[in-house]
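Fold Annotation — chain and its backbone
Encoding — discrete vocabulary of local shapes
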Amino acid sequence: MLLFLLRRLGVMILTALCLTFVVFYLTNLPAKLETLAKTQAGSRMSDAEVASWLERNGYGSPMIVRYGEWLGVVPGWVREDQTGVLRGRCVDRIDETAAGERCGIAQGYWGTSTRFRAPVADVISARLGATGWLMLWVLIIMVPMALVVGVLAGMREGSRTDRSLSTFAIASTATPEYVSGVLFIALLASSTVGLSPLLVSWGWIDGPVLFQGNARSALERITFWNFTLPVMTIALYGMGYVARITRASMTEVMTQQYVRTARLKGVSFPNIVLKHALRNALIAPFTVIMLQIPWLLNGVVIVEVLFSYPGFGWTLYEAAVNNDIELLLAASVVAVVVVLVTQLISDIGYVWLNPRIRIS
């Protein structure tokens, strides 16, 4: 197991380097840098002025050198302006004595966001924490419901229960988040249409709406009323996929020989499901559930923008729209690390769920 973990860690580091270099290359294309220069210094700059601005701000070096500076394995760039004051990647962060030092990802320096005018590390940590709470509540709601729906549908293949639950799972997966989110807002968070005006007329609620369609207040204090709609929107979409995988896995396990043997021995049906079939049936859903974590981190852009919840996805959208290169790179590192770590946990989970799976 230890050798396996060491090999996987080595592959993870190599994969992270390759993926981050691809993102660095795409975000540092000449067109992107020209847009950045005109955004920061003026939209009417000439080509010569753009080239001069890029040179003064450390973008004139070869791309592989700038990638090394960003990683922190190559000393940061240093320039001297017209007044004789030193500027540079490390100088701007510390002081003039830091000229020529290394300050990149390896040293914990993520750069400065041109969109938020703040250190990228502070922006990422705050937004990642906000999305972390959203992911936690989505998983708490989505995973148990998906497993229950999948197991109940797979226990008796072809029954009315199976057909009903399978239809519900397919419908939830086929409905995009921006559709279900808008429907939830119209039905539960509108003061003119939906359920809220009816509840107000009956005197059942004090406020104008039942739920809040804007989740920005959840940054200060999460409540049932401001966090339910975004959680329901994401959980409903992801639940159907996990439920269908669980149902297919459960159906396959229920036809295995050891399940038939247990039935012939007179073991009760609930014991067959819980003690014999469920653990083996959870191997495939476990992988899918672990894959939901990277999806939740990067795929909630629509939901966070729709409900005005400034989390990681919303920040990624802001960075892309405003060509914030440093923030985009930091977000890519976080996304790559989350994907690789969840895959490692998924591989370890295989062994725990089924010891017969050998690590080659």
